[in-house]
Specification:
- The protein is of the alpha+beta class and 460 residues long.
- It is built from 13 helices and 18 strands.
- It has a 6-stranded mixed beta sheet. Strands 11-13-9-14 form a 4-stranded antiparallel beta sheet. A 3-stranded antiparallel beta sheet has the order 4-5-18.
- A hairpin with a 2-residue loop joins β4 and β5.
- The longest helix is centred in the C-terminal third of the chain and has 24 residues.
- Bound molecules: ligand BES and manganese (II) ion (MN) (2 copies).
- Ligand BES binds next to loops.
- Pfam families: M20_dimer, Peptidase_M20.
């Protein structure tokens, strides 16, 4: 399969661009699991080598308290605009392995898609930037200075990237940040992401009696922490899907009717959505559409719940402990720390005195919005139109990239969220994939972006 592009160099080098990505995808750089520490390092070294091959003046592996950050730059003329590219080379764990049709770290092409953990999130999308840079170097058409900052801890909260950014403001000085770690509506309807949700993530532990008990001897007379945990979770939302934590919605920015009408015009098929997920109906906050429920409204979700006996057969036990991992997706202007506190206060307040409750916060992040009025967005819109033959639709996505809000705060820079993933890519799930078409079109669009960004910046 050969994807047609406006740039001959990209078309001629397609196979090698794929081969190199495959090499990266074979490295299991799972940031969450210590077992893969050396592989994470290997992925960082691979990226550094590829940046050097592509033509950066300087490339380094920056050590952090966790996984390394790869930094590279090509400064052609300080008077020209500078683009800071951010991406991540770490991936989510591939479990459960048995649900993969082909192994997660043995990239395979089926129906013109690359199947592998990280193919879309974010190795494939991040690597498009290195290949776009190579294209511009090889065709003598680089019009901007470029800096690359590729991290290995995005999937575990980017804590060290925050520290690195604070400590390297001068080094990271740029006119804009470009990130491909989001999606488009479809290949027929290209879009650019203008909003991301924030995140609050907590783990809760509910303790009943001091040891597991015989559920016949004690059952009915002693509180069961799993039963209690379920009831407590149930109290966090009402029957209309509205979250009941006091103060939770206080800072939520409500959209104007005009903005909601614009959102409603976005191409979306509820039938296709339900069919894809094999569900008879959707569920969400009453009064909002599916696009709104993921784009502009906050959530409360249990991500995992456990306790008691879950082995084979039956064991009659009244457990001592119950646990759950809970996430809340946030929208402007909610604040992650404030929401963590509101949740904790409320959760503790609904606990009966028959149990002890502990709440442990995990990493979180703030929601972010980026302007469509910026030079970067305008240049991106031109690039998308040129490569895809259609003007992009600005969209708000439900996922989180906490570093976007942090870049706004620390570097004073907006990020351009020009990702090319599709819902069907199944990121974080078994059988993650990324379309070859999207990979190649992405490289083309990014290359065209630099041209338009330089021209529009000069005109300003
Ligand atoms: N690339 C995703 C975020 C994303 C996915 C944005 C889909 C838009 C659409 C990113 O790698 C991710 O998975 N982020 C995490 C948060 C992080 C703090 C672990 C998320 O959204 O769960
Ligand atoms: Mn990602
Ligand atoms: Mn991810």
């Amino acid at each position: 399969m050969s994807v047609k592009t406006k740039i001959p160099y990209i078309e001629q080098n397609q196979q090698r661009f794929l081969d190199e990505l495959f090499e990266l995808l074979r490295i299991p750089s799972v940031s969450a699991d210590k077992k893969f520490r050396d592989d994470v390092k290997k992925a960082a070294e691979f990226i550094k080598a590829k940046l050097v091959e592509a033509g950066v003046d300087k490339a380094e592996i920056c050590r952090t308290a966790g996984h390394p950050i790869v930094y590279g730059e090509k400064i052609i003329d300080p008077a020209l605009p500078t683009v800071l590219v951010y991406g991540h080379y770490d991936v989510q764990p591939a479990d459960p392995y048995e649900l993969w049709e082909t192994p997660p770290f043995e990239p395979t092409i089926r129906n013109e898609k690359i199947y592998a953990r990280g193919s879309a999130d974010d190795k494939g999308q991040m690597y498009m930037h290195i290949k776009a840079f190579e294209t511009m170097m090889q065709t003598n058409s680089l019009t901007c200075n470029v800096k690359f900052m590729i991290e290995g801890e995005e999937e575990v909260g980017s804590n060290n990237l925050g520290i690195f950014t604070e400590a390297n403001k001068e080094k990271l000085k740029a006119d804009m940040i470009m990130i491909s770690d989001t999606g488009i509506i479809s290949n027929e309807h290209p879009s650019i992401t203008v909003g991301l949700r924030g995140l609050t993530y907590v783990e809760v532990e509910v303790t009943g009696p001091n040891r597991d008990l015989h559920s016949g001897m004690y059952g009915g007379a002693v509180e069961n922490p799993i039963n209690v945990l379920c009831e407590m979770i149930h109290k966090m939302k009402d029957e209309n899907g509205h979250i009941t934590i006091p103060g939770f919605y206080d800072k939520v920015v409500e959209l104007s009717n005009a903005d909601r009408e614009a959102m409603a015009k976005q191409p979306f098929s509820l039938e296709k959505y339900k069919k894809d997920l094999d569900i008879a109906d959707v569920f969400g906050e009453k009064g909002f559409s599916t696009i709104e429920r993921t784009g502009i409204r906050p959530t409360f979700d249990v991500n995992g719940i456990w306790g008691g006996y879950i082995g084979e057969g039956a064991k009659t036990v009244l457990p001592s402990k119950a646990y759950a991992k809970i996430s809340m997706r946030l929208v402007p202007n909610q604040n992650s720390d404030e929401i963590t506190k509101m949740f904790t206060d409320y959760f503790l307040s609904v606990a009966p005195k028959t149990v002890k409750v502990k709440v442990t916060p995990h990493h979180g992040g703030e929601p972010a919005m980026v302007s469509t009025k910026s030079t970067a967005y305008q240049a991106a819109a031109l690039a998308v139109e040129e490569a895809w033959g259609k003007a992009p639709i600005p969209t708000r996505e439900g996922g989180s990239i906490p570093i976007v809000a942090l870049f706004q705060k620390v570097l004073g820079l907006d990020s351009l969220l020009m990702g090319f993933g599709l819902d069907e890519d199944a990121i974080h799930s078994p059988n993650e994939s990324y379309g070859i078409f999207n990979y190649i079109k992405g490289i083309e669009t990014i290359t065209l972006f630099y041209k338009h960004f330089a021209t529009l910046s000069k005109a300003k």
